[in-house]
């Protein structure tokens, strides 16, 4: 009973926080905010379509630690290692795009737009540019005051569906949300080290993973080599072998034919709790697009800071200088 009460209270707190977000939050305080971010994302996308995958990953990795508070953007110092330097985040990129957007926004309306909102808006715009859904993202987040490497605990690529879902459930996300959000693997790449065991020595058997298409395993083996004899320094391969830069439903079709690269991706099509969702998305691109827009909005509301919580950073990479406490005489 006590545990249920705690879960209920947390749920209520999350609902109240997300309820304070709203579409067009900056309409009066910084009317050009969203168009400024969109323009910078457009410029980057024109020369580097892989930025969509980079921003999706940054957004996910930020929201899954302390909530969507831009804590992933903080640089480490000599005395404190931040989230950015945790193992899973060492290959996160796109920080320079966030910096560029922040610089432009500070010039237009100083100390108004949070870094957390910049990540959300930039990711939304990149998704749309890559052929994904266009959706209205509520804004009004504030930036966090903590970034600690010890807080980073993200779901890995070799988890089972139940194991992975425990991470999503803890953030208030449903099983459908998880299957949908993992569909972000329709763009981007993975280093061979994350799936190399599936190619030749799955779970110590000395054989390839039987749930991977043999032809795909053979092709990937030529690219990656084996764990004991890699081809070169941990190369990357596209997670979606067909439409690698397009946010579409082909990722789900590939998993149905045993062509999921990461183990968790393939597990989605095999586990009885998620197989039917994969089947729906594989056969209905519109259903996936609608679900993806909804899930991305829901993800962007995870444990947000609003109102007077947190701060609006001047520089996304560092916390604002703390104001000294002034004691009144006699106290």
From TrEMBL:
Substrate binds at residue 155. Residues 20-320 form the Plant heme peroxidase family profile domain. Ca(2+) 1 binds at residues 62, 65, 67, 69, 71, 83. Keywords: Calcium, Disulfide bond, Glycoprotein, Heme, Hydrogen peroxide, Iron, Metal-binding, Oxidoreductase, Peroxidase, Secreted, Signal. Its EC number is 1.11.1.7. It comes from the Eukaryota. GO terms for molecular function: heme binding; lactoperoxidase activity; metal ion binding. One of its GO terms (cellular component) is extracellular region. PROSITE patterns: PEROXIDASE_1 (PS00435), PEROXIDASE_2 (PS00436), PEROXIDASE_4 (PS50873). Ca(2+) 2 binds at residues 186, 240, 243, 248. Residues 1-19 form the signal peptide. Disulfide bonds join 30-109, 63-68, 115-316, 192-224. InterPro entries: Haem_peroxidase (IPR002016), Haem_peroxidase_sf (IPR010255), Peroxidase_pln (IPR000823), Peroxidases_AS (IPR019794), Peroxidases_heam-ligand_BS (IPR019793), Secretory_peroxidase (IPR033905). Its main location: secreted. Its cofactor is heme b; Ca(2+). It is found in: Secreted. Removal of H(2)O(2), oxidation of toxic reductants, biosynthesis and degradation of lignin, suberization, auxin catabolism, response to environmental stresses such as wounding, pathogen attack and oxidative stress. These functions might be dependent on each isozyme/isoform in each plant tissue. Belongs to the peroxidase family. Classical plant (class III) peroxidase subfamily. This is Peroxidase.
């Amino acid at each position: 009973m006590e545990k249920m009460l705690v879960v209920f209270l947390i749920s209520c707190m999350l609902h109240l926080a997300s309820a304070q977000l709203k579409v067009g939050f900056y309409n009066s305080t910084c009317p050009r905010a969203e168009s400024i971010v969109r323009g910078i994302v457009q410029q980057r996308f024109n020369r580097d379509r892989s930025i969509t995958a980079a921003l999706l990953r940054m957004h996910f990795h930020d929201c899954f630690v302390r909530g969507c508070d831009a804590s992933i953007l903080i640089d480490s110092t000599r005395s404190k290692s931040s989230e950015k330097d945790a193992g899973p985040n060492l290959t996160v990129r796109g920080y320079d795009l966030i910096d560029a957007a922040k610089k432009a926004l500070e010039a237009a309306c100083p100390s108004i737009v949070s870094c957390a909102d910049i990540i959300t808006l930039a990711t939304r715009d990149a998704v749309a540019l890559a052929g994904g859904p266009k959706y209205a993202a509520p804004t009004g987040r504030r930036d966090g005051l903590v970034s600690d490497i010890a807080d980073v605990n993200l779901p890995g690529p070799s988890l089972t569906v139940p194991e992975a879902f425990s991470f999503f459930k803890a953030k208030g996300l449903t099983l459908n949300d998880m299957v949908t959000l993992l569909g972000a693997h329709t763009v981007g790449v993975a280093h061979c080290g994350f799936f190399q065991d599936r190619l030749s020595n799955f779970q110590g058997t000395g054989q390839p993973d039987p749930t991977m298409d043999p032809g795909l395993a053979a092709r990937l083996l030529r690219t990656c080599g084996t764990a004991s004899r890699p081809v070169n320094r941990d190369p990357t391969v596209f997670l979606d072998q067909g439409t690698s830069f397009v946010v579409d439903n082909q990722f789900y079709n590939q998993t149905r034919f045993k062509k999921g690269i990461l183990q968790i991706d393939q597990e989605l099509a095999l586990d009885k709790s998620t197989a039917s969702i994969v089947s729906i998305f594989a056969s209905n691109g519109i259903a996936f697009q609608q679900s993806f827009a909804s899930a991305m909005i829901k993800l962007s509301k995870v444990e947000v800071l609003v109102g007077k919580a947190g701060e609006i950073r001047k520089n996304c990479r560092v916390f604002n200088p703390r104001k000294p406490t002034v004691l009144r005489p006699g106290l």
